[in-house]
Amino acid sequence: MPRGRYSLHDPHDHTPLADEHFQCAPGPSGWRYVSRLTGPAGDQRGSVDLALDDLGRPIRLELHAGGWQVRGAAIDGVTWVRTDPTGAHAIEGNVRAHAFTGTSPAFLVATARLLRLTPSSAATRVRLVAFTDPVLAPRTVDQSWALVNSEAHATDNGPLTVDEYQVTALDTGEQHAVHIAGDVVLSAPGVELEDLKSPPSAFD
Predict the structure, then answer these.
(1) Rounded to an integer, what distance in angstroms lies between the CA atom of residue 14 and that of residue 17?
(2) Nearest-CA neighbor of 45 among 20, 72, 24, 13?
(3) What angle do CA 42, 102, 10 make, to 5 degrees?
């Protein structure tokens, strides 16, 4: 069960945003990731709880940030309920999309798991609903994912396969690289893996 800490920063000016303390593990029905976020001063910034089924689809998502809450799942595309800080209003949303995304590295692992690309696969288009900080506002985004390299590295615990993805935002054409080993993000824009207590889990 990998556990550790990511540091999150603004990908443009590198302003520190939060530390994400996480643990994740595959299970008989899929994969689960839970984390809590703390600000640079140690204040609580929110939490992430994401569960995928064996096909990589989100069967449960719960996000907390800035007093806002989102609960969602893959139902008729993706469906979610967003609740305001007072708890007085809940707004339901639904989009014909494949999955969710956001600032948490969990969503990068989830998208890679959903697409199951190989180096010989063509670039694959995916539609995602992004929940943007700090108020978890939903926004539909279209991306293209391609697995450009998959390389095994020797470690004390045996070979570790690192997959390099090229992710393209289809609305702007902006491209960036994402490096994932098993169920842990090694590097991505705005994400640095600072601490890892145990090796990544390998998906079947």
Answers:
(1) 9
(2) 20
(3) 55
